[in-house]
Amino acid sequence: MDELKVFAGNAYPGLAQGVCDYLGIPLGKAEVFEFSNENIFVRILENVRQRDIFVVQPICSPVNKNLVELLIMIDALKRASAGRITAVVPYYGYGRTDKKDQPRVPITARLVADLLTTAGASRLLTVDLHAPQIQGFFSVPVDELTGLFLLSQYFREKNLQELVVVATDIGITKRARDLAARLASPLAIVEKRRLGNSDTTETLNVIGSVQGKCALTVDDEIDTAGSLSGVVNTLLEHGVSQVYSCCTHPVFSGLAVQRIATSPVKEVVVTDTLPVEGDKKLEKITVLPVAPLLGEAIHRIHTGLSVGAMFE
User: Fold this and answer.
1) CATH class of this structure's domain 4-146+291-311
2) Which of 16, 25, 115 is nearest to 70 (CA)?
3) Domain 148-288 belongs to what topology?
């Protein structure tokens, strides 16, 4: 695999190192820093001419800085004559702005797709997009992995009794149904409504039987955890015995960690598509590594094997 090289920006170098450890190759050498005037500088420190390049960079906080850093790295690699450049974006920032749901608003998820391809990305490798139509925003191939297999395996081994999988809103129902099928459990749905452009939601109803059962809520991401807190409280009011929660992307912005700490939720299980560091580490937060998943996908893309076969 001497033609394969993996580079990392400053968003999450630990994840890129984990991918390289899985592949058995060294992390690519690059200089990526910010000048005092906030301009970002990138210099690739090794030959990449006609190499198969993968740049690992989730679009996480600080979102705009990490996005621009990714774009500049791709441009630098393109100008260094890289053969193929794959943007490995485990968490696709701006993914929630995927449609015009109000007058005179942007579709920023499409804009980010245009920026990546214009910068020189030949393909995208990502994990659990917020909406499947985002794949169609790209004019280059998109490989979308899923964290559901890691999450379902964890809860299968936990062997919770009388389990019901709960979709935290209507939009996540298909993903929740897939998880419920893997756990051989029934499905329930929480109906909620987002209040304007704020991060607050209103829980309206629970569809399905949850009385006396152990509930497992599923979502693609946990942002401020306001929605999670509301769902957990509503389920307990409807008679569930205990509540577990899982998601792929632990954004954990604002008061998320404090809300999880004080919530009656028993355990929150996430993957590390974004870094969970510092005060985000709680005893009730379990983090599952995605580096082997990304590493295997990168190996298959590089060698021309099927990525979809990983999930069959």
Assistant:
1) alpha beta
2) 115
3) Rossmann fold (3.40.50)
Judge contact between 256 and 234, C-beta under 8 A: no
Q: What is the pLDDT of residues 37-86, one digit of tens each?
A: 999 999 999 999 999 999 999 999 999 999 999 999 999 999 999 999 99
Tally of CB atoms within 10 A around 307: 17
* 192 given a catalytic annotation: yes
Rounded to 10 deg, the angle between the 108-119 and 63-79 helix axes is: 30
Q: Name the 3-class secondary structure at 311.
A: helix
Spot the catalytic one: 29, 158, 174, 192: 192
Q: Residue 300: which residues within 8 A CB-CB, separation 6 or more?
A: 306, 307, 309, 310
Closest CA to 279 of 259, 260, 257, 296: 257
Q: Which residue is listed with tokens 């996480």?
A: 60
Domains 4-146+291-311 and 148-288 share a fold: yes
CA 215 to chain CA centroid, Å, is: 23
* Distances in whole angstroms, Cα of residue 229 to Cα of each of 41, 185, 274: 41, 23, 21
Angstrom distance (rounded) from CA 46 to CA 302: 19
- State how far the Cα of 176 lies from the Cα of 166, in Å rounded to an integer: 7
| Structure token digits, residue 133 | 């139509």
Are 180 and 165 contacting, i.e. CB atoms less than 8 angstroms apart?
Answer: yes
How far, in Å, CA of 235 to CA of 220, rounded? 19
Mean pLDDT score of the chain: 94
What are the structural domain ranges in the chain?
Answer: 4-146+291-311, 148-288
- pTM metric for this prediction: 0.94
Token pair belonging to 95: 């993914």
